[in-house]
Amino acid sequence: xxxxxxxxxxxxxxxxxxxxxxxxxxxxxxxxxxxxxxxxxxxxxxxxxxxxxxxxxxxxxxxxxxxxxxxxxxxxxxxxxxxxxxxxxxxxxxxxxxxxxxxxxxxxxxxxxxxxxxxxxxxxxxxxxxxxxxxxxxxxxxxxxxxxxxxxxxxxxxxxxxxxxxxxxxxxxxxxxxxxxxxxxxxxxxxxxxxxxxxxxxxxxxxxxxxxxxxxxxxxxxxxxxxxxxxxxxxxxxxxxxxxxxxxxxxxxxxxxxxxxxxxxxxxxxxxxxxxxxxxxxxxxxxxxxxxxxxxxxxxxxxxxxxxxxxxxxxxxxxxxxxxxxxxxxxxxxxxxxxxxxxxxxxxxxxxxxxxxxxxxxxxxxxxxxxxxxxx
Length: 376
What we know:
Elements: H1 3-12, E1 16-22, H2 23-31, E2 35-36, H3 49-61, E3 68-72, E4 78-82, H4 84-94, H5 136-143, E5 146-152, H6 160-169, H7 177-188, H8 190-200, H9 203-209, H10 213-217, H11 220-231, H12 236-240, H13 247-258, H14 266-283, E6 291-293, E7 298-300, H15 305-317, H16 319-324, H17 332-339, H18 343-346, H19 359-373
């Protein structure tokens, strides 16, 4: 298929409309639950109170606001695809923003900004403190401000909404690939997202990966869980055919498809996950995915994803046998130490003379090594 044919085919998948709406209309839509900003996304927001204040300041002085993208669902409700921070700031300032439990959040109090320093301490409307509230004229300035909306129509390809969300939000206030994936899952299937979050909070898993606070905040533990689910039992022929150079891109594509994977045996996957990290937590705990230095005879450094790919996925592949094999008791630490003497493994880490190695090639090399290692 040539470029023109690809263009025509892709363009047929997208149906859009666009028009302007006032902030007041957008507030009414939210209060009537006719627009969904997904309150779960609030944990991924990066806007500070100062950024929020600057946005409100922009509305007041009449600066143009970037277009907001929404997707129309079958029930007619609009899902916000891009513009989450802008709309949530408006709703928070107006005192109508709801959290994940449906409870109204404390209204935003504005901070000091350059153009309108008198906004410091202002609220939308507080009858008990009129001095620190916007007056009627100022509120109307905000409510009458116009914002352009692009509407992805219901008849568009079902995947278009998720692809659009990923393209528009990558590199923005939502900082990491995994935060984007979490949002895609929330938009498509909250139950699966809740299942993943519950698994990721497993105490044995958390003790083994021993991530920094920053990595946890950026949801890296959920990315590791996805890696486990995706690659644990993947056959090597499928592994060799991964069409993406970087594994992160493949994980994102898999996540988009994951919400419709009704054929997945969730009970079996959960059992494999729990068994794997029970074994590791009992025998290695925080040393599970750290480098072993044979000269110093100790584990050193922090978490290494390459070690996770070899060890967690290797044990996960053989988890049933390892759980019952008498000769596997307390054998895992010695096997893991031996991994760091295996030149096939160490040469796949990208530190050899020849430079870096792409993440697809790395996992294609490492996965078979891990499976071989734990054939006890």
